[in-house]
Amino acid sequence: MSRQAATARTDVALVGAGIMSATLGAVLRRLEPDCSITLVERLDAVAGESSGPWNNAGTGHSALCELNYTPERRDGSIDIGKAVHVNEQFQVTRQFWAYAVTNGIVADRGFLNAIPHASFVRGARRVDYLRRRQRALAPNPLFAGTELIDDPDEFARRLPLMAAERDFSEPIALNWAPQGTDVDFGALSRQLIGFCVRHGATALFGHEVRDLTRQGDGSWTLLLGNRRTGQSRRLNAKFVFVGAGGDALPLLQRSGIREVRGFAGFPIGGRFLRAARPALTAAHRAKVYGVPAPGAPPLGALHLDLRLVNGKAWLVFGPYAGWSPKFLKHGHFTDLPRSVQPDNLLSLLGAGVTELALVQYLIGQLRLSGPERVRMLREFVPSAVDSDWELTVAGQRVQVIRRDRRRGGVLEFGTTVLSDADGTIAGLLGGSPGASTAVPIALEVLRRCFARRYQTWLPALKEMVPSLGVELSREPALFDEVWSWGSKALQLEVA
Ligand SMILES: Cc1cc2nc3c(=O)[nH]c(=O)nc-3n(C[C@H](O)[C@H](O)[C@H](O)COP(=O)(O)OP(=O)(O)OC[C@H]3O[C@@H](n4cnc5c(N)ncnc54)[C@H](O)[C@@H]3O)c2cc1C
């Protein structure tokens, strides 16, 4: 039998200790030093789910190398609209990180490292696509400096590991962007949450939010279960941010807000091959993204990355898709079935019918044997030796399925911020481009849910993100200024 304590009160409840709650918490703490903040996390650590360094790919997604953001139009021209949008979002995040390190919010800059981003293709047709992609991107200030490399000697100079034992009779090319980054979102989350706690926030680890009930005054009462003792308690909050990763959909469903009706979720896991042999990591100093396979989700393109985690260099290759009905890596097999409700059944079925290519891709991925995975690795590293690489299981991404009049439901790969009409609760569904967009997402939550106070916060927010409200791709001089300021503050030097 669980015993129940009196209801505690807080201004803001943050559900989940991943990068999203950490970022929103740190921004709010800075804006409103006196408001009470309580963070509730079901695990015993920060970033135990998708934000942990081994649960994601650590790419500072800025569309420098991800080919899904630069599709080819029918007339052969390259559409760079999505790439510019994703890069603009990353610039907002990067500026906040620069602010955080110069203002004592984050003490250790080691979470962020400069690592070139490259796109890699084989075959004459794709080489031609990369040439056109480079020409389309290069005039934009956010992508200036992107090079086309199609000379085998230069390829070998930049990427010795990928060049070793490669048959260069087939045309190859790279788009090379020196300004890319590798990010340890776990180390960053720990520092941001540490900052909140040092400045008066309360953190409850090992506590799970099991239910949320709206009160007559518009506040929310959260039912919390202590996973160690079995005790339960109540927490009343004026504002709730559901930064629960894959669990955001079920929690928002439990809140009963109208805005979540019709949404469903579909979990896709990720697995990577990982190697730490110094001879390998020394010969590959980049993140290299390939062409997405047919049916693969947007960020499902295979890539070979140098990662820096706790100061140690690793090579990581993947993702290979995994599947389980769990919405969290440490979740329950009942997560998917329990999320199906009368209001989202049609959305789920509709998406199932329209996403046959994705289903086929997933089945193909699940059937991959160990040697088949290494064969795919050898397309990047022809000299790869099986025994250097181990398979790791990364986090779960719960892709959003949205109701669609015509098709019943459509699967979306972006991130959706949901909030109720009164701005008392907000949450985040979906997972791409993910952690890299944590800061624009936090700002969006504040703008929607604290609409009146947002105006008074603007001067402080502009200190955190000097380009706030400006499209940097249209303001090259401002871009140069904030880029140089950020690079200096973050001490970004190419690895
Ligand atoms: C394979 C993979 C690769 C990725 N690669 C990248 C990448 O290269 N770059 C990038 O920017 N993004 C990437 N992402 C996406 C990125 O990892 C996520 O978008 C981001 O980490 C989500 O952060 P979050 O704080 O919302 O969720 P999470 O980090 O998942 O945190 C949610 C937290 O909420 C807790 N929680 C859940 N339910 C409850 C509850 N009921 N009560 C209390 N606590 C609860 C969980 O335990 C967890 O700690 C990747 C994701 C995956 C899966």
From TrEMBL:
Cited InterPro entries: FAD/NAD-bd_sf, MQO
Its EC number(s): 1.1.5.4
Catalytic activity: (S)-malate + a quinone = a quinol + oxaloacetate
Positions in coiled-coil regions: none
Pfam families membership: Mqo (PF06039)
Cofactor: FAD
Gene Ontology MF terms in the entry: (S)-2-hydroxyglutarate dehydrogenase activity; L-malate dehydrogenase (quinone) activity
GO biological process: tricarboxylic acid cycle
Membrane-spanning residues: none
Top-level taxon in the UniProt lineage: Bacteria
UniProtKB keywords: FAD, Flavoprotein, Oxidoreductase, Tricarboxylic acid cycle
Record pathway: Carbohydrate metabolism; tricarboxylic acid cycle; oxaloacetate from (S)-malate (quinone route): step 1/1
Presence of the UniProt keyword Heme in the record: no
NCBIfam families given in the database record: mal_quin_oxido, PRK05257.2-1, PRK05257.3-2
Family per similarity comment: Belongs to the MQO family.
Record-given protein name: Probable malate:quinone oxidoreductase
Organism, scientific name: Mycobacterium helveticum
Source organism phylogeny: Bacteria, Bacillati, Actinomycetota, Actinomycetes, Mycobacteriales
